[in-house]
Write a structure and sequence with these properties.
By secondary structure, the chain is of the alpha+beta class. It has three domains: about 150 residues, 2-Layer Sandwich (Beta-Lactamase), CATH 3.30.450; about 90 residues; about 150 residues, Histidine kinase-like ATPase, C-terminal domain (Heat Shock Protein 90), CATH 3.30.565. About 50% of the residues lie in helices and about 15% in strands. It contains eight helices and twelve strands. The strands form three sheets. It has a five-stranded antiparallel beta sheet with strand order 2-1-5-4-3. It has a five-stranded mixed beta sheet with strand order 7-9-10-12-11, covered by helices on one side. It is rod-shaped, with a radius of gyration of 48 Å.
């Protein structure tokens, strides 16, 4: 289980469940005992009333019911009974007993005894029984009984109340656990957001803004981010230096070959070898750049501004070749990508369109369900469907009559793959030539290295 939220929920839920269950069981036991004590207290009071009544009418026990005024004593099988047994064994009882008698113990009970019993009809009840000696020296047995159904009703009511309380406690506990987990994980969420902003703004995270348990992690992240940015900067600078160092000798060598007296015999093979060298160099440099793309993915790039800037530059080049460039860009477009990588992609596509178009180029940049969509169309000859896959492979030149190493679209495809984007070559429905469709995620979740 890798999720901290799930761990907090499961552990907190188990602890809360154990604590609440233990508390409920203890409370249930207490309420059960409390209900029984109240029941027995009522029995004692009724027994005391019966003893007082007997003391008053010891000479005529049949009149005891005149003092015991509870109407339940007069209702048959009401669940409340009293019974008096005289010294001569004669029995006096409440009308609620009808013809039945309470099962008294044969042993004398000078102290009040409370115990469960069962009537002749199987009715369970609880009885208070005692042998008392009056002032005249006579011994009497006095017993009162109450059906256990009343006790069970009290207990059932207590259980219902307890179930409601338990449900509320569980709901409150779950809500509290969720809230507590959210509060505890808030610094982690904030750290994640701050890391992204730190990439964009180049700021260092302040460990004092976080809890002391998270502060060491913040310091480590600062170190790692700074180290990674330095590595990316150095690798890109080295790639640029290498490109500059190799392109200059290549250009000089190409010029020297063109100046040879017998260049017609050797220039073709030499220039072809230089084209392969340039292709290999460009491919290697592109791979170096894409290997560091993931580390720069949190840098914000203004897509709209870049497209407009490139449109102004390529419009001049197109005008020099008697061609027209039209641009439609939705305002406010942006994505997480290194600006140089985005410029490389856009520049390669526009350069390819300018090279092959006849008179018109149309560029469209807009939002897309999967990110940002960039569509570049031209009115050139296009690329046959069966050759479009080859056009995206490094060094594959479909037409040697036009200068170039055949790497523009291939480098574009590699950079887009590194950002989780895609490029599609289609036929332009509007202009009839090639349509290059680029889908670039605005916030890629996982980048290819």
């Amino acid at each position: 289980m890798r999720s901290l939220r799930r761990r907090a929920w499961v552990s907190g839920g188990l602890v809360s469940l154990i604590a609440v269950t233990t508390g409920v069981l203890l409370l249930y036991s207490f309420l059960e005992s409390e209900a029984l004590q109240r029941f027995d207290l009522s029995l004692r009071e009724r027994h005391t009333q019966a003893v007082v009544a007997l003391s008053r009418f010891a000479d005529d026990p049949a009149r005891v019911d005149e003092v015991l005024l509870d109407p339940e004593y007069d209702r048959p099988a009401s669940g409340r009974y009293w019974q008096v047994v005289g010294p001569d064994g004669e029995i006096y009882a409440s009308a609620s007993l009808l013809e039945a008698t309470l099962p008294l113990s044969n042993e004398a009970a000078p102290d009040l005894a409370i115990h469960d019993a069962q009537g002749a009809d199987g009715e369970p009840y609880r009885m208070a029984h005692q042998v008392i000696t009056l002032e005249d020296g006579t011994r009497w047995e006095v017993a009162v009984a109450m059906a256990l159904a009343g006790l069970e009703l009290d207990r059932a009511e207590a259980r219902r109340s307890l179930a409601v309380a338990f449900s509320l406690m569980v709901l409150v506990g779950l809500a509290g656990m969720v809230a507590q987990t959210a509060i505890m994980l808030r610094p982690i969420r904030r750290l994640r957001q701050d890391v992204a902003h730190r990439w964009e703004k180049g700021e260092v995270l302040d460990s004092s803004d976080y809890p002391e348990e998270v502060a060491p992690l913040v310091d480590d992240i600062n170190y790692l981010l700074q180290r990674n940015l330095e590595i990316v900067r150095r690798s890109r600078q080295q790639a640029a230096d290498l490109a500059h160092a190799l392109k200059t000798p290549s250009a000089i060598l190409r010029n020297e070959i063109m100046l040879l007296p017998d260049r017609e015999q050797v220039a073709g093979r030499a220039l072809d070898a230089l084209d392969r060298l340039d292709a290999q160099l460009a491919r290697s440099l592109a791979r170096i750049r894409t290997s560091n793309t993931a580390e720069a993915s949190n840098i914000r790039t203004d897509v709209t501004a870049t497209v407009q800037r490139f449109s102004r530059m390529f419009s001049k080049l197109a005008a020099n070749a008697d061609k027209a460039l039209t641009v439609e860009a939705t305002p406010g477009l942006s994505l997480r990508a290194d600006p140089q990588d985005f410029e490389e992609v856009l520049g390669n596509i526009l350069d390819n369109a300018l090279k092959w178009s006849r008179t018109r180029i149309v560029v469209t940049a807009r939002n897309h369900a999967r990110g940002i969509e960039i569509l570049v169309q031209d009115d050139g000859p296009g690329i046959p469907e069966e050759e479009r896959s080859a056009a995206l492979v490094s060094g594959k030149r479909l037409d040697a009559s036009v200068p170039g190493a055949g790497l523009g679209l291939a480098i574009t495809a590699e950079l887009l793959k590194a950002y989780g984007g895609k490029i599609e070559l289609q036929r332009s429905e509007d202009l009839g030539g090639l349509a290059v469709l680029v889908i670039w995620p605005t916030a890629p979740t996982q980048l290819a290295g």
